[in-house]
Amino acid sequence: MMKSIVASFMLVIAAQTAVAQAMTTADVERCNAMAATMAPKKAEIETLQAKRDELAISVEELGEVWEDAEIHRLASSAHAATADETKAAYQTARKELMGKERALQAVARQFNQDIASYNQSCATAK
User: At CA 14, angle to CA 10 and CA 17, rounded to 5?
Assistant: First the structure.
């Protein structure tokens, strides 16, 4: 069992060495440049996720406030005005959340394409 694991590991190392030897200096530089962009993009995705998650909590809270205000809408015109204000705040926050989600998805999609491109040209034998 151990011999087969060691043999598999040696084959992986040999394949990586063959790929590295088959690449020109320009290819290596291009791959290194591509690899250097991965960490900042991943950090950007994590930041966008944190902002989205924080906003989602806020949107949920605003939704609850609106629901509470909506219950008393018919009590008076002041209650109706409060319900309208809370509804507008909730809808604005929802739109902002949707925008953050679309931005996150766009960055994640580009990141996945970059990884696929890197894997295709830099991490596999040709």
Answer: 140
